[in-house]
Amino acid sequence: MSYCRLLTKKHIKTSLITFAVISAINGCYVKTVQSHYQENYRPQLQFSPAKYWMNDPNGLVFYNGEYHMFYQYNPNGNSWGDMSWGHAVSHDKIHWETLPIALTVKKDEEDEATEMFFSGSAVVDARNTSGFGTKDNPPMVAMYTSNYPQAITLYNGKKILAGMQAQSIAYSLDKGRTWIQYANNPVIEKPPAFPINYESEYKNFRDPKMFWSGKYNKWIMVAVLAKQHKALFYESHDLVNWHFMSEFGPMNAANGLWECPDLFELPIDGHLAHKKWVLIININPGGPAGGSGSQYFIGDFDGTRFVADKESQYDNTPPFGNLIENFEGSYDSIAWTATGDFPGQYLAYGNQTGQQGVKNYQGNKILNTYTAVPGSDSANGSDTPTGTITSPSFTIQKKYIDFMIGGGNHAHNPAQSVSTETSINLLIHNKVVRSSTGTNTETMSWRSWNVAAFLGKRAQIQVIDQNTGSWGHILLDHIIQSDAPKITANWSDFGSDFYAASSWNNVPNDKRLWVGWMSNWSYAGNIPTSPWRGTQTFIRELELQKINGRIRLTQVPVHAFNQLRRQMLFHHQRAIMINSDDTLLSNHQIKAKVFEIQATLNPAGADNIGFKIRTNGQGQITRVGYDALAGTVYIDRTHSGDSSFSTTFATRHNAPVTLEKDGKLNLRIIVDTSSVSVFADKGEVVLTDQIFPDPSSTGMDMFSEGGSASIEGLTIWKLNSIWTKKSNP
Asked: What is the reported pTM?
């Protein structure tokens, strides 16, 4: 029996310092697992563990020439569980060396976990305020959430409740190679009791992000009350004794759990005299593409309290404009035409009979196509009614149509011989010109269509539900014509696979670098990778820039990423005219699995312009482009490869983009073996999506739909693997 388990049996009976020493001697730190890093879908540009499960990045800190990245890790399997802190370091922000596990799950004699190490942060205590080291050898100090699955009494006498999430610390005196847990952990046992009593939320109090503030001469930490949608701010002068200062929230996106906060200050447009604070809140579910996502607030922090700028605050109320329908009347007064199973059956006070969970709508009633089969629910294939519900004709008078939507994710696809969609469509002359679908959630959220191209034309709204399987229904409320799109949050990334984003402490020259977990809790446990599951994105640099009159958080790959450019596959500086069946790239035999595209698009008279990537000529294709009609950049992974593991995976993700006055759009597209990352213009809009194409899918081409367009400058590089000593695809 290992000491890792023996020493954590119900009552811990030895000091934590002794535990650390014995752990090292007895091999409690799992040895680094080797891999050739050439498995199918293995990322070649982004860090993944050689083996087993990984999720949130933790403890991001720069110290003595090394960028440390800890991460949530299961040392015992390829699914979530036995949460520990894995560890890797980089000297150049690109290549990584995996180190032994830093903090390993504690178990009792029955192999049941007594303490798991959830997300947190790390700092360099350069002033030795904690007393754990010396000024000549300052300690690295980590703060993490101790998750206690069962009730125990710790060696120090503290009584722990089952399910408690409390904040603890550990320190290292050897550059993070070994860690000593503080003997009087946890240092924050429960959420504050004053001025508001949150102690009952002890099961959802987590993810501490701490940093040193020279301006206020103290340590500052922000954690979350996940279910309350609260960020809690603490202060300390020694990293051991922490005092609650203030709270923030709920605000903006608050339909899911708030997790993994971050707080930092950045200059605006590089001007050191003009700075703003950025508060990061990750949310699950409730992200822009469904499932998990990351949002940010811009505001001011006075050392005690964070206040979001007015222009960074959004609410859930309907926008000002011309109401098309709010579904508050009767069937006769609404006068929509229903077919199939829906005549007299589509209005509901939130939930239909047998349904649960519909929320976040406006007013009293909504359109709801759910009808249950007795004994079943909306998520498991019970929802059999089908049909359409169509509005009276109206004239498009404003540039946007905003609406609330929920329900199943089954997109409009005219190529399907048998329709299985659950979607909201905009019809002009009976042709679908705009379409949206749900994200497999009963929580309704705002969406917007850019309809400027159709001003003055007659149109109809069509709700179509042809799906009888899982999540075979649609929810709709408050359809309004407006002068601007309805915004509910500032999203860090509009793709599906960017979560738990966090930034590095102590980076030279005060640069702000961050990384996110490249997955989504909607399907993370089922993605088809082995012997590992989980990837971190490549490192991105953050800035605040004023764009179109608004301060935006921008992000681009760190400059060192350019070192991976291996071979220029294509380069053309002059305008290239493209049409729908353009074959310029395939004519030049441009093929690659891991590559980068830099392009300037000019839609001109086209409706849609972009790139077909990771194609195989047999139906596999990922499309990345700009939809000029909708005013969005998108990644369409509907046919990108394996999506059998999730009903929500094969879809298109969109992000609103306003073109510059010259009508051009700069795109940087980075394609890995199993992901696509898109950075638009200055990096104010980013999308990150996983894809799982066949290894043979290496083709690419350009396309233009609805007219000719041009690409005014195009360069494509094949990229080196970051595992150059192991692999070089």
From this structure: 0.89
* CA separation for the pair 370, 381 (Å, rounded): 11
Tell me whether residue 269 is one of the annotated catalytic residues: no
Q: How far apart are CA 292 and CA 283, in angstroms?
A: 6
Rg (CA), the chain: 26
Tokens of 677: 């990352």
Contact 564, 45 (CB under 8 A): yes
Does residue 310 contact residue 585 with C-beta atoms inside 8 Å?
Answer: no
Does position 377 have pLDDT exceeding 50, yes or no?
Answer: no
What Cα–Cα distance (Å) separates residue 435 from each residue in 244, 412, 450, 703? 47, 7, 11, 21
287 pLDDT band (50/70/90 cuts)?
A: very high
Q: Is 35 helix (H, G, I), strand (E, B) or coil?
A: coil
Give the single-character DSSP code of 408: -
Catalytic residue, chosen from 56, 125, 497, 582, is 56
d(CA 270, CA 272): 6
Determine the pLDDT at residue 394.
Answer: 98
**Alpha-carbon span 483 to 505, nearest angstrom:** 41
* 378, pLDDT greater than 50: no
- The per-residue pLDDT for range 451-475, each reduced to its tens digit, is 888 999 999 999 999 998 878 999 9
Between CA 688 and CA 709 the distance in angstroms is 25
In whole angstroms, what is the distance from residue 247 CA to residue 267 CA? 24
- Report how far apart, in Å, the C-alpha atoms of 577 and of each of 224, 572, 706 are: 51, 12, 14
Given 3-state DSSP classes, what are the helix, strand and coil percentages for the chain, each rounded to the nearest 5? 5, 45, 50
- Which one-letter DSSP state was computed for residue 725? T
Please provide the DSSP assignment of 96-143 as one string: -EEEEEEE--EE-TTS-EEEEEEEEEEEE-TT-TTSSS-SSSPPEEEE
List alpha helices for 337-490, DSSP H.
Answer: none
Is the Cβ–Cβ distance between 302 and 346 less than 8 Å? Answer: no
Q: Which residues of 288-322 are buried (b: 16+ CB within 10 A; e: fewer)?
A: bbbbbbbbbbbbebeeeebbbeeebebebebbebe
Nearest to 99 by CA among 88, 107, 90, 85: 88
Compute, in degrees rounded to 10, the torsion defined by CA atoms 357, 360, 365, 368. -50
Whole-number Å distance between alpha carbons of 562 and 230: 39
For residues 418 and 449, the answer to whether their CB atoms sit within 8 Å is no
Mean pLDDT of 385-400: 96
